[in-house]
Batch of 2 targets.
Target 1
Amino acid sequence: MAHAMSKCMLQFNISAAFDAAIRLLGQVCQQFRRGSDRFKIWSAIADPQHDVGTPPLSSSEQLFLARQPILDDRQQVFAYELLCRELRPAATTVDESARTLDAAVLSIGLDELTAGRLAFLKVSRRVLLRDAATLLPPEGVVLEIPASIGVDDEVLTACKSMRTRGYTLAAGEFTLEGPAAALLPLVEFVKVRATDATPEQLAAVASHVRSQGTRPIAEGVEILDAYERARASGFLLFQGYFFCRPRTFAVRTISTRPLAQVALVAALNKPNVTLGAVEELLKRDPNLSLRVLRSVNSAGAGLRREVHSIREALLLLGLHQVRKWASVWALAGANGGSPELVSTTVLRARCCELLGAQLNMPDGGAEYFLLGLCSLLDVVVGCTMEQAVKELPLTPTTREALLGCENAARYVLDAVTLHEQGDWDGATEAAARVGLEPSALPQAYRQALAWARQVTAAAAACARPGKEREAAGKGTVPCLAGTVPISRGTVPVTFPR
């Protein structure tokens, strides 16, 4: 008996050691592939006359990285443009498009950055001519060719080559008379600065471009008036943060649904709220209760039994986590605008929370989560910020920050919003006012991106009953930001903390 047990243990140890060796070998191979790809990027863009001895491309922790949404005429997310800059620019000729390419291919991953949507990446002349962009798969990527790189025979030949290999191209800085006009037969998209043209000029460009089978994108659309002007001129795709801007409000009555959802957020976030009080609040909203229960069961896939009551859910996840999730979903229920508005809000909330934790706030950054969550409440609800925060149980510091007063909370919110818009210098300056290191912003943003995607996956799973939580094959699933394309396998059902 003892001999048999000893033999069994020996076999188990050998098997475990073999599995560990296989995992280690896989990690080594993955690192080798990443190093090889990074070398390919570097060798493709390096200038032998100037870049000798230049350090390798930066890791994600050394990069400012953000994404800007491109929305369709229904304000659904069509794509994201990736923006990138090195945290501490070195004396090197490596350009920002190479840094973005490195982050998209290696450091972070394209899917994590865009949640499965199209990714627009600006490419420099060297990246284009030396084929560095071919390290990205043709699917899901649009290579944007700025007119400023010089549209000559070399560039046109390179674009033709990329197109024959299945890559989608876009022409940036497009005008009918400008150098980018030569790219029109080769590109699927053109980008036009909405603020640099009259409505008549915008209409002429949109009409001509669409007659050639190309789709025009209005970029720099930061206010609603610019969006409405571009849309009236024939544009159906828009890049900018116009959807985050409040309308000019007249004195009017706010609809009942947003008010009820804001009241729910207020009740959930009252100081010293009890577990029993939260339980009662959730029970009053069947849809919210269902989301909580399904999320718990998704997170607890390894449990021997399912959780069937709100009280069990609260005990499993904890009061703070349930309050946070319920607040997010209540806000999503109040939103009558673009679904990207909620995605942006969730991203801000988590980013503010992470920065608050770095500032050693006594609540671990929970107050700053609510700060970020409420930062677009005026747009979500459709009223002034003064009206929106009136009934919320906010601390004086958070309330003042949301109303634009300068304090530590406002500086954190400014740092996050400027970072998401690609204003790296402004974001760094705002962060420095509260003693945050420049590296804190890209680290928090990257973690918040991953977290926000997990929220989307959990919300998608909650929206579908039973076996529908596993979506095999191609298709889309509903989420906070609209729909997420599913390329293969199953939808990940994790419930992030």
Note: Residues 2-45 form the longest helix (44 residues).
Target 2
Amino acid sequence: MPHRRANVSRRRFLHTTALTAAAAASGIVAWPAVLRAQGAAVKLGVLHPVSGALSYSGQQGRLGAAPGAVLDTEGTVVGRHKGSYGFTVGQRKGLHIGTPAPDGRPRYVLDIQPASRTVTVGPAEALDVLDIEGQRAVWSGCTPPTAPIDCLVQLRAHGEPYPAAARADGDELRIRLAQPARGVARGQAAVLYDGDVVLGSATITRAHQAVRPTQVVP
């Protein structure tokens, strides 16, 4: 167990280091500024301390009201909200749903669209994701792979890594997980590993619901 905890702690450190390196490598900000901004964002509640995704839950007083619709997976309006920034993918409580699901099962946030101010909710199994796309890929441990390579991908700083196949597509990253992951959202980081070596990272832009697992990265 101590050896496993040491490996997990090391991977969390590497996950954070990879995110910081990617931001600094963009040339937009310097390393100290990245670290200060991350710490301030976590304190304000706009950066999730575990997933690293943007989260504006509880920030309505600062951001103002931006009302919109809560939709089910068929596009039917089942509720209203005061701001899509108050939700995170995988959230179950506080959904402002006026109509229960036909089968009586709990519903979860599946997708958030700030531009249209819509929040989509559905059953827990709809959170399962197999295919992930990311942008602004940074390759620090290998050359950008044009064909799928086997690796581990970490989606949360405190989460377990998932076996996956990944490849570069220009400055984008495409990942096919070997098993479904839940709660994957735009804005989170995907960090690729070969053991404890960071191969690369990218910011998630799309997460596709698990339907039929295959061996080919799209």
Note: The chain has two domains: 1-44+128-218, 60-125.
